[in-house]
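Deliverable D5.2: sample structural annotation.
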Amino acid sequence: MNRHGSPPIHASDTVPGDAIPGLASRQLAWQVLQAVAAGAYADAALERELASLARAGGGLSAADRGLATEIAYGAIRQRLLLDGWIDALGKVSAQRQPPALRWLLHVGLYQLLFSDRVPAAAAVSTTVALAKRVGLGRLAPVVNGMLRSLLRRRERLAGTPPCTEEPWDGLPLPADAAAALALRRSLPPWLSAELLGWLPPQRAEAFALACNAVPALDLRVNPLRTSRDELLARFTAAGVAARALPGTPHGLTLLERVGDPRDLPGYAEGLWCVQDRSAQAIAPLLDPRPGQRILDACAAPGGKSTHLAELIGDHGELWALDRSEARLRRLDRNAERLGLTSIRSLALDATALAEAKPHWCGCFDRVLLDAPCSGLGTLARHPDARWRITPDAIDGLVTLQRQLLEALLPLLAPGGRLVYATCTVEPRENGGLIAALLQAHPGWSLLEERQWWPEPPAGERGGGDGFYAAVLQGPA
């Protein structure tokens, strides 16, 4: 068959040298699920648990670390579908399960439904062993019974037409199209309903597929230090599989999983940085030129700031503005690694910039506003984001985005160009917002408007993120 409460126990409590292979990986994934349910961000929770385990002397091998990451991120993405299976197989609904047990069941169910690398028997036995290890021994028979019930139900379906072997096969689906899409693709019901309002069903399905794909790892070559062909040759010599990205002059994508990208050839020399292929299309829309004065108004962590500096040959005055000093320090370190000297960072809220720097009004040739947004175009990259975003939160973001735009318009020189960008597909944050802005400022013109939708996987990994960009020009 193709298989697509209690306080959390931390990695520091793990006994090194597990007798059961892979048990530490499953425990770490379970701990991440609990941390995310309590409000932590998935990437931060994973790194924290891995570091804690390493400090305790029980660091994972690269393969086990990869398995822990796959289970944790995958189970977070598939939360709604996994809950649906708990509802269908158990006597107690997922929402009423003790949280520690609910997330433990997610660890086991995810492996049975989605992981081709884990045999079914190993998925069941390690989940039962984990229950006993973390103080849920009295519930181990429940875990064993539910996982085996899933296998029996799926086995009965095998070979029975129509048999698509999808992870929801055997699960009763709602009659409502939006609710069915939400359950099948594990999307928040409100987002599923919105998608079917924005897109025809086939494209909504493609969006959902993209949200659940393992994201590609794309790189942007630093043309001031090397060429794409030269870097690809270095990767080939080091046994790193990569290819050039069509439509991006300096982009390439890795074709296989790697460990820490910083260990790849050329990182320390500043030959490249990580940047999604869609994000690489934003900075060129400004048409930046050497010698210009440019403002990146919400700059951290700095991917687009460094791209702008590269595009102007590092000749000009480029201000990278952000509210967070800590995130700007990360930008500064990356700029130093890439050998870029034209970037000047400033910790300040962009809505207060004209008041804090009145002499800056009318003096920037180019302004980039990569605005805070709902991030609906990057759900594959941020597995927990879909469960954090709410329609009410989007209302607040639209207000903030408009405030930022209004604050930045006066900073442009006559005839200057502003690019407004988001990593979302929500029309209210994108085309709707820009249309309202232009109506209020008739002297401004829209030169170009683009919406990139997340790309469904082609092979093992997904394509680019979803982005929006509007190119505005001020009155001469």
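Annotation notes: The mean pLDDT is 92. The chain has 17 helices and eleven strands.
The annotation will be released with the project's public dataset once the embargo ends.
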